[in-house]
Specification:
The protein is an alpha/beta fold and 289 residues long. It has 8 helices and 8 strands, in the order βαβααααββαβββαβα. α1 runs antiparallel to α3, α2 runs antiparallel to α6 and α5 crosses α6. 40% of the residues are buried.
């Protein structure tokens, strides 16, 4: 683990600077996060704390539990290389498709899906994680950010990923919670003062060239969420920015393109290299200071 910093956030004399990591939301594009975790491991860096939104909370939880970047990558590849493998996993846990739905409607229970697909070694609570994790959700009725860093882990992750129209909201501690991307798509601001260097990975999609066709209902729902996320990010960056911001060039992948895992990994390699160089430069600058 990284050495402790002094109360003002500065590294102790002779200590390497500490890192905090923010992982943004973006569905299948979150596979890029795995390569960034591999980059940190190759540099010998262990984040002091991780903040994650949506898929960022999911990948962050796996890493915070002690599963290495390469092992997360292998697990994801094994799971998503064949559609039949996921179907078998789901139906071995739930007897019928209706059990994955909410009240007979068309939206699915993210909590049940996660319970079927997540590694069995994943802890059941935040307190059992090896690295502190902050999961970002949106309080639907209060219309504001709600952060979860204690208590049951899977419901919190499901809440952070609960995109309306696709996954049902989660009721937790008297709150109705939905996707954290509506309020904080890349939660680097939550990490200010908690480490010497704050690194953020933004996997939201930017403007795309028109394909000359009307989007489907599901694409309209997801695309509107992406527009909201980019708008929030633009406003956030006007007031503050992380020490390191990486935006892999994978915006052309759709949120539900989980079966394009190999392509996403391949097109994230350059971002991984950029991230490693940025981390090395930040460490060197901090040491000089």
């Amino acid at each position: 683990m990284p050495p402790a910093a002094t109360p003002d956030g500065q590294p102790s004399d002779g200590a390497d600077p500490s890192f905090a990591l923010a992982l943004g939301g973006g569905g299948a594009r979150g596979f890029a996060h795995v390569l960034m975790l591999e980059a940190l491991e190759e540099l010998g860096i262990v984040p002091r704390v991780i903040a994650g939104t949506s898929i960022g909370a999911l990948i962050g939880a796996a890493y915070a539990s002690g599963i290495s970047g390469p092992d997360i990558r292998s697990y994801c590849e094994e799971l998503f290389h064949k559609r039949t493998r996921i179907v078998r996993r789901l139906f071995s846990r739930w007897n019928a498709l209706g059990e994955l739905r909410s009240g007979g409607g068309s939206v699915f229970s993210g909590e049940r899906i996660l319970e079927a697909l997540l590694p069995e070694t994943l802890p059941r609570s935040f307190e059992a994680l090896k690295i502190p994790l902050i999961a970002v959700t949106t309080d639907y009725y209060l219309q504001r950010q709600h952060l979860i860093s204690t208590g049951p882990l899977v419901p919190a992750i499901a809440a952070s990923c609960a995109l309306p129209g696709v996954l049902r909201p989660i009721k937790l501690d008297g709150r109705v919670l939905v996707d954290g991307g509506f309020v904080n798509p890349v939660p680097f601001d939550l990490l200010k003062g908690r480490a010497d260097i704050v690194a953020a990975i933004d996997i939201s999609a930017g403007p795309q060239q028109s394909r000359g066709q009307m989007p489907s209902l599901i694409d309209s729902i997801i695309g509107s969420n992406q527009i909201s996320m980019r708008s929030v990010m633009r406003e956030k960056l006007k007031s503050s920015a992380p020490d390191i911001m990486i935006r892999p060039d994978i915006g052309h992948f759709r949120v539900l393109d989980f079966y394009k895992i190999d392509e996403i990994f391949a097109e994230s390699i350059s971002a991984k290299d950029h991230f490693k160089r940025a981390c090395e430069a930040a460490i060197a600058a901090r040491r000089r200071a």
